[in-house]
């Protein structure tokens, strides 16, 4: 039985889930059903079988016991039902169809076991091994308890013992001994069947284990078979490669025979081919272990190839004699290369000389233009002289006319005398005579008046000629003195700033008076040639003699433009963190070029780039400033940065405010910069400066505005108007109100809603709000950002304050320093280039790729650049997405920047490590000035996906270097980048690709369009690059707007205070000399011509 069951299950590869229905008869009439389900997973490749187990109850003794008990317990069973024990069972197995299996145990109570599939697996798993995990097993057992038939009597029970056999005969009478024997035999058979069932189940389990092992071996064999197939394919490919190599070898052999190639290169080539063939042979020999029949033939072919290669190698020996001529040719080529290099260096020298000559020609052209202007002025005076001569001629004509009139009068007198003769003849003649006398009187009066007019006209002409001669004389005198009066342009700004700092040092050291210092400052301010000459003469003399030489110049002061002092926490390049430093330097240089006196006050950080400060020295003076109820000393340093005079304040405070190794990020930043703001104003007061404008920047120096009006105006520092620029309203520097008392401000007066009280927390003060309230001019760095900060979202709590002070609040777009950011003169670049020669941009891309270890396989592969601080404002999640999107589009991506936020820095360090050896991605997580210039020059596309951006300078610098910006439409980006596909924007302003929504879809839309233009519209892209490089993002326009704000504010202040001195500009100073002369000459003739014309009309 066990063997048959094992064979059955193995033949059908059966795995089942058993559903057993066990029916137990009870003495009661109410059936009870119990259902239990277990799930057993099985392998899908095995078919399902069915079997039936029937349990026949042949024990008549058992039935007799039931019959004897039925009569005695009939009544009690109806009231107290007792469960009947199940009879012994005999198992029988009957195979069923392949869809399932059923097991039936039949007696007077029947038990059925239904085996049904639970799970179907996919066809791809047919070859996997059958596994039945104990955790996944479940057996579904439905137990149905049915009612057994009542046993009414013993005779009825005995009738059931009749067995209807196959022959149809009925056993009517059986002896009890035979029945007992039959029952015993049945019981023995039952025991045997039970044992057989147990053995069958054990064999079944063992067969399952054996089947698992066999299945595993089958899988291993299948894998090996697959490997052998793969190796056969590799061997076939290798054979093809060998054939191709043989063909190449034959081709090379023919080429070498024809051209006489170099012996060593050919020998090395064949040796490398032999090595390749040996490697191929070893690989094929390894494969021979699995596929002997197919690889053996390949090995034989390889052997033949090796033999042929050896013969070819022997043939190469014959070529050695022919190679000597080739070597001699190489030596000649080397000589020619050296000659070419020397000629190239000579050409470069000639080019440099040509450039120098062109510069001299440009200077000569300037002199020619100036000379031409002088000749034009002389011609103008000659024309005026000709006009005066013509007027004199006209006067002579008028005089002749008067003489004619006199002759006519004489004739009238004669006729009058004749008329007198006839007077007595008639009354009419008398009346006529009277009339004639009246006319004569009128004529005499008219003649007299005419004589007077002629005399005055002649006098006026003489006066005009005299004035013209005086003007011509003054012009000659002005021309002779022009060399001394006009500005000296050949001295750098560093020279003038150094001279200015020397004068201020003398003032602070009490060696010259305030008035003398002011006059000398104005001369430096105007770049007067006399003070330059005085400095050159006294440079080698003692300080006392130098002072005497300079004081001689104070006798003839000249007026000047505005005096502007910037108080800031940053200045590029010596102390730069972000765009603030660039703005301070660029704006100050532009204002200086426009003729204003510009000075800067900075903290003296220990981490500044001191090598970028020229003539740095400490003044022999100690400046005391108030803080925390005490006076603390400050050391004052002076130097020039980018041609600008700069004062550095070094506090002698025990907390070492600016000796921390970093610019910002300290726990006491509020105290550090409030101390600096007061010390800066104290410096202006003690040095006797009278600035017209004090310009402070961001919250670090926002304390200047309330300090100026509350403390220093009463002390006498009252000449200035305050301008405050907020570069980013995200940073407002709020602190508890009590900390404001340290710098001397009244906390009770300042911590009010209309002054410095923060709009979000009543117990805190907001320096930015205080500057907005106390300043005369409030600006931010772009027009769009000025609109955004007036909203609740963009204002960061200050929108109501800005709206209230909207009349003095304006947005001015920043510019860039076009001298520092100029690809034609940038010393950081490997190759300089300009808009007319873009080849240098390609060479810079190649150089950057080599430096960063990026792929140089495709020169035209677009490179995307990004230089930024990795902070949430800059859209770090969009930058991260842009890296991967660029990779998908087949471009290269270079990122330069770091993050002050720890988790952002760690995230990008992980990305950098992931792409550390990648051919197309490189992340440099620091700031490197020289590398930033190289990235601007090398990149084709520059991405700025900021969430909000007050202004942004990188998009302007990128366009200056020919890198097309991809930017989000916000803040200053919206004011400087205009989409090439936006038809509402004029064509000349379309310069980049923009997107609005700050998400991945927005980045994709703009970046995809940029890549499409770059690859499919080469000519349009070239034109776009040239247009962007020609755009003017200098500080000229921005400086003009600031200058207008300054002048209007100063004019309003002087209009409100009539006693304030008026700003006068000399008519004959500098470049305005010619205009002054023209005004003088014009005034002369404007006074004379109207009078003359009026008299002429009266004469007529």
UniProtKB/TrEMBL annotation:
Which pathway is this protein engaged in? Glycan biosynthesis; starch biosynthesis
Starting at the broadest rank, the lineage of the source organism is: Eukaryota, Viridiplantae, Streptophyta, Embryophyta, Tracheophyta
| Catalysed reactions, semicolon-separated | [(1->4)-alpha-D-glucosyl](n) + ADP-alpha-D-glucose = [(1->4)-alpha-D-glucosyl](n+1) + ADP + H(+)
The residue stretches assigned to a coiled coil in this entry are 204-262, 302-367, 395-478
Q: What is an example of a Pfam family matching this protein?
A: Glyco_trans_1_4
Q: Which Gene3D superfamilies match?
A: Glycogen Phosphorylase B
What keywords were assigned to this record?
Coiled coil, Glycosyltransferase, Starch biosynthesis, Transferase, Transit peptide
Which Gene Ontology terms describe the biological processes this protein takes part in?
starch biosynthetic process
Q: Where is the Starch synthase catalytic domain?
A: 564-802
**SUPFAM superfamilies in the record:** UDP-Glycosyltransferase/glycogen phosphorylase
Q: GO MF terms on file?
A: alpha-1,4-glucan glucosyltransferase (ADP-glucose donor) activity; alpha-1,4-glucan glucosyltransferase (UDP-glucose donor) activity
Query: Which region ranges are annotated with the description Disordered?
Result: 59-96
Enzyme nomenclature, EC number: 2.4.1.21
Q: What class of enzyme is it?
A: transferase
Q: Which family does the record assign?
A: Belongs to the glycosyltransferase 1 family. Bacterial/plant glycogen synthase subfamily.
Name-wise, this protein is: starch synthase
Q: Which HAMAP family match?
A: Glycogen_synth
Instruction: Classify the source by domain of life.
Output: Eukaryota
